[in-house]
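RETRY 2/3 - previous attempt timed out on the joint model. Re-submitting the same 570-residue input unchanged.
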Amino acid sequence: MLRINNLSKTFNKGTQNEKKVLKQINLTLAEGEFAVIIGGNGAGKSTLLNCIAGVHSIDSGRIIIGNHDITNWPEYRRSLLIGRVFQDPLMGTAFAMTIEENLAMALAKGKSRGLQPGIRRSDKRVFRDRLAQLGLGLENRMSDKVGLLSGGQRQALTLLMATIVRPSLLMLDEHTAALDPLTSQKVLQLTRDMVAAENLTTLMVTHNMADALAFGTRTLMMHEGNIILDLQGEQRSGMTVETLIASFKQHSGQELINDRLLLS
Amino acid sequence: MTSLALQGTIELGIIYAIMALGVFLSFRTLNMPDLTVDSSFTLGAACSAVLAVAGHPWLGLMVAIGAGFIAGNVTALLHTKLKIQPLLAGILVMLALYSVNLRVMGGRANIPLINQTTIFGLLAGNDWGPLIIPAAILILLILLLFLFLQTRFGLILRATGDNDQMVRAIGGNTDVTILMGLAIANSLVALSGAIIAQYQSFTDISMGVGMVIIGLASVIIGEVIFGVSSLLRRLLAVVLGAMVYRFVIALAMEAGMPPTDMKLISALVVTVALSMPAIRDYLVERQKRWVTRPGGEGGSTDAEDK
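RETRY 2/3 succeeded.
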């Protein structure tokens, strides 16, 4: 479903601050595969997602989703195939617009955005049903502005917006990192349910080692712009957080010194 | 204020409200400070005057709308394609339009329209004509804008000012929303200029100076006084804000200020309007301090207990 060939990305190319963030990344995700990416700060996790989404242009390589080579597509066009949830709960929604208006914009993905009515009566029924499934009571607040929602509610809404038109690829960039632990677990649970219900091909970035093993079907570990570890199947199910840390040390030749990774 | 002066103020308020709606679209909906407004207002007035002299006052309005649309397009393209900051893109187009406007006006700095047929000839002889015609246009525009901003395109246009990253993430092309948004905004501004030219029977090359500030003042006064709770309310607030602004100016004139001081008064009104939220916060803070100070209202209950 997703195929990345020899993807490289350098920031500030040709200057003193030149930094190779992604080095010849190769990655293939099969249909319905749920991969979790983990790695320290500066490993290139978010950059990889942003390169796939088209936020950053790339130096070299190819990005293919389904039958589409999207390497040269602009960001907005790639979004027709990709659903995204960001780390910052403010980034996924338009705060001065209502919940139903936000959902309506997401529902129009892939359709012509002309002078048709923005929200139809039948759309509202769909929104009500889908919001009810979130279990947050948002179905009774559809004409409330999103600015009134909490971070967790916004992330749940963004998740719904990212999936209301089935995406070929769902990308979650530490989408629970800004939430308190309880809300974080709730949103993760919602994520798991939604991905399972639609059998979505998913790429999730996390800082949490336990989550990286508990969620999804595959764990990828990134370090200095490379994917250094790719765990699937039995090899993955046998892993614990301790053995994961040990194998990181073995593959990177470094101690995993990162408070955020260890403490979480 | 005499009833004639009152009617005149309302008439001006209605016509300038059309311009303020344009400023609302760029400043508030797209969240872009668009200074093209100062010149696209004159551009509309110039088109309107030239065509009115030629005997086509209504065509003048149509051409003004088209010219404003193109002016907005140019500013948007400078920003989206050439990556020039919105503020600078607007200033560049404003500068360029000064020369364009002079060309449209045939090299003259002003065009009088005395004894020419204007759109107000439609209700000639009716004292309310200068009120009814702009009011009808304004009501039609509010209705169209209200409907437009709730279409599929209208939704992503509004979201662009809120969060352009999100619009791209759901597949919306923000270059197109900015292009159309600024184009429509400047169409409204140019239309307002076109009506003003025929209303006051006079077009001057510098009549647009400070227009963006007047528009912004109208938007902010409207928001502060009438609120922003719903889309329709926001649009009506802009119109009412434009009216209030005109009344402030009219009262200043009434008080004996010379017309040459009007730009100074405009700047003062806008400064007050812009600082309104900060002043309100300050007053609330002071109120709190007053209530909680020892011996204040907050402390007096303790005293009673003793």
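The mean pLDDT of chain B is 91. Closing ticket.
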